[in-house]
Amino acid sequence: MVRGAVLLLLWLAGAEMLREEQVERSGFCSWKCMKFVQMWPASFCVALGPRFDCVVPESADSWTIHGLWPSSVMNCCSCWHLFPSDLMDLPKQLAQHWPTFLNASNFKFWKEEWQKHGTCAGCMEALSSPSKYFGAALDLRTTYNIDGAFQRAGILPSCNHSYQLQTLREALVPILGKEHQLQCVTDGQARQILVQLKVSLFSNFSAGCLEEEARDFSPYRPCENQRRIFYFPPNQKNPRDPCP
Ligand SMILES: *[C@@H]1O[C@H](CO)[C@@H](O)[C@H](O)[C@H]1NC(C)=O
Ligand SMILES: *[C@@H]1O[C@H](CO)[C@@H](O)[C@H](O)[C@H]1NC(C)=O
Ligand SMILES: *[C@@H]1O[C@H](CO)[C@@H](O)[C@H](O)[C@H]1NC(C)=O
After folding, report:
1. CA 208 to each of CA 134, 148, 181: distance values in angstroms, whole numbers, following the listed order
2. Where does the signal sequence lie (predicted)?
């Protein structure tokens, strides 16, 4: 009995060592590309389940950040906690450009993004601390400015005008290149609505990194070419159905 328990312990210790070795070999730092993901706040609540509260702040009238995600790695270090003081002077900019819409604290959202994705980004010097990671995402939002690209192309939010996928893509090519993905949801009136944009970056932040698409568990799907796409204006009073 005792001998069995000892053997079991030895076996468990061995399995643990093997697991650590595998993680090291597969490498948290093996990622080549990262996804920079921006959301269109006006559409966020359309696909949100009824279990969640939804609040879109007045200030969210332009594209906001969802995250900066090194590819094929997640939750790289549970021991690296994020504290408000880690973000120094960023909270004001983050509240404006990286807010949550779940009627929860922004810091909780940032902490989850840090835990899941930020802890994996630190293999690169430019992202090796919370203030560098969150600051880099804010800079990327300026570099890959969707609001500006759409405005220059005359693509404006509207309840009663829809766009072809190709029109939207052509407006974005000058800033994002061809390797980007527009994501949509379908609303209660079977309209296809633009909600999110993903661009795949090299570790030097240039766009165009090619990789296999990982499985996506979100309700967002690549916008379909055959259907018109709506780009709804924000409606803080009725965020779940901005254009009834
Ligand atoms: C947001 O949360 C507060 C406090 O829990 C609650 O009183 C309020 O009704 C919520 N708002 C929405 C829109 O769900
Ligand atoms: C609907 O379209 C008209 C132009 O045809 C425009 O003036 C109006 O602002 C649009 N309404 C909304 C809510 O987008
Ligand atoms: C970024 O890295 C990629 C891949 O290594 C390279 O092709 C590209 O030229 C680099 N961009 C810049 C601006 O250095």
Report:
1. 21, 20, 11
2. 1-17
pLDDT for 81: 95
pLDDT at 23: 47
| Catalytic annotation present for 179 | no
Q: Where are the beta strands (DSSP E) in 96-231?
A: 162-163, 180-186, 192-202, 221-222, 229-230
For residues 139 and 226, what is the distance between their CA atoms, to the nearest angstrom?
Answer: 34
Q: How much distance in Å is there from the Cα of 24 to the middle of ligand 1?
A: 44
> What distance lies between CA 83 and its chain's CA centroid?
21
The pairing of beta strand 180-186 with beta strand 192-202: antiparallel
Each residue of 51-108: pLDDT tens digit?
999 999 988 999 999 999 999 899 998 889 999 999 988 999 999 999 999 999 999 9
Domain 32-230: state its class: alpha beta
Q: Which residues line ligand 3 (CB under 6 A)?
A: 202, 204, 206
Q: Which ligand has an atom closest to residue 207 CA?
A: 3
pTM over the 0.85 mark: yes
The full set of domain ranges for the chain reads 32-230
- 112 part of the active site: no
Coil, helix or strand for 100? coil
| Burial of 42 (C-beta count, 10 Å sphere; 0-12/13-18/19+) | buried
Rounded Cα–Cα distance for residues 3 and 7 (Å) = 6
Query: Which residues lie closer than 8 Å to 218 by C-beta, 6 or more apart?
Result: none
The rounded distance, in Å, linking the Cα atoms of 199 and 148 is 16
Mean of the per-residue pLDDT values of the chain:
89
Give me the phi and psi of 114, to 5 degrees please.
Answer: -65, -50
Residue 117 known to be catalytic:
yes
